[in-house]
Each structure stands twice: as structure tokens, then as C-alpha cells.
């Protein structure tokens, strides 16, 4: 039987979850060495909210499948979209850290869940192209086979790659060659245009993609970023201006700058990874 306090308690739980998810999104967007930071804050908040639900299911309902399913879903999709194992580990660690520091979770409640996450990562080994070491501990980035306390190859690779990046390539924003699906809508002199394509690289302030359409510098476009074509997918559209056009063999390179701040988790909900 439902009690009179059920509704207020549920509202409080939802508010607590939203605060947590928003905090994770803000902290991720502020990082400079995790490629999840390139995604809009509303989508990062959704990812964090799913982690929160899965963690509660493990602790309150003794449901190990929830966290295993989450690691499998985001691990496979992140690998497909060009993110690294190091990116996923940083995401998982930050979700845990914020739960302790800002939502008041005790460290000891993670003992079982940490082991479940490590097991879930080991089961990803034959499903993604990443090199996932045997016995990987996601909290340290080390495997049981590591000697001398060195970090796993994937984590070390990301650090070395960032250190070797020329300063001139940074362009004021953390930029990476990730292929995320997008939908572009605009109005050319010949009429409305719409295309679904993939980014060539992205930054926290914009995206770059190749196209055969006659976009021009200064043109205003609407960009669903990222865009998922499933019937029940929720896609968030952002206004953007064309800032540069490059003529290339494979098509015209189009650089877009978003006209809204993607750092705010309060932006209307969006989905980064759609679960089919």
C-alpha cells in the first residue's frame, strides 16, 4: 500500500539523482584529458544518471546485472565511436568519486561493485578492439600482470599522445578525431537541406565534418549532436554557424561553432548512446 510520504520521498530521490548527474556532467566537461568531456552536458548527465541507477540496484537490490549491463553498453558503444579504454575508466572513476564526495556515499559500499565493474570490463575483452589487460583494476588503471607499478598500455598511450600533441593543434579547445553521427538542417538558395553524416573531429565548442552540400561561411545551421536514428531516440538540436569551409578531395570540410553553451546540464534532455 502506498503511503502519504511515498510521493515526497520519490521527489527527493529524483532531485538527489539530478543533482548528482548534473555534478558529474559539469566535472566531466571541465576535464581536459577525457574524451567524454567533448559531449554535451545533458548527455553526460544522462550517462551519469544511468550509472547512479545501476549502482543503487547493486547495493539495494543485490542486482549485479545492472552494472554489468551498463559497462557492456557504454564500453561497446564508446569503442565503436572512437573513444578509448582510458576514457571509459575515467568516466567510471569520476562517477564513483562524485557519489562519495558530493552525494555522501561511503567508500566501503563500493567493495562489491568495484569487483563487478572489473569483471564486466574483462568480459568486454573479446567484444571491442581495445587492448584490455588481464586482471584490470579500473580504479588504478593497472592489471595484476603489471610489474613495477606501471599503468596499463591504454592509459599510458593516452597520456603520451596528449603530451606529444603540438600546441598549435589545440585551437583553444580539446579536439579529437571522433566519428559521432550528426544530422544537419539548413536553408540554401536552392531550398531546405538535411543530411545525416558523421563528424571528422569534434571539440567542446564545435564539430567538423565532410559534405557535398554547398554550405557557406556564416551560414546558420541546426545540428542534432549526436544523432541517433532509432524510432524512440531522443536527439537534442543545437544552433551553429559555419566558421570555415575547406576544399578537400573527399568533399568539403565544414567547421561549425555552436551558438549555445554545451556545459549546462540544465539544457533540454538528450541521449548520447541509445540502447536499442
Protein model, in words:
With 276 residues, this protein is of the alpha+beta class. It has two domains: 6-164, no CATH class; 181-258, predicted glycosyltransferase like domains (Thrombin, subunit H). The chain is 38% helix and 18% strand. β5 (237-248) and β6 (251-258) form a beta hairpin. It is globular and about 60 Å long. Residues 149-172 and 268-276 have low confidence and may be disordered.
Task: Please sum up the structure shown.
The protein is α+β, with helices and mostly antiparallel strands. It is built from six helices and six strands; from the N terminus they run ααααααββββββ. α1 packs across α4 and α3 packs across α5.
Looking at this protein, list some descriptive labels:
about 280 residues; 2 domains; Thrombin, subunit H; about 20% strand; 6 helices
**Poorly predicted residue ranges:** 149-172, 268-276
**Dominant shape:** globular
Count the DSSP helices.
Answer: 6
Could you spell the SSE succession in H and E letters? Answer: HHHHHHEEEEEE
Provide the gyration radius in Å.
Answer: 20 Å
Strand order of the largest sheet: 1-2-3-6-5-4
What structural class should be given to the helix and strand makeup?
Answer: alpha+beta
On the 0 to 100 scale, the average pLDDT is 84
Task: Please describe the biggest sheet, giving its number of strands, its sense, and whether it closes into a barrel.
Answer: 6 strands, antiparallel, barrel
Number of DSSP strand runs: 6
Distance between the termini: 34 Å
- Fraction in beta strands: 15-25%
Roughly what percent helix? 25-40%
How many separate domains make up the residues?
Answer: 2
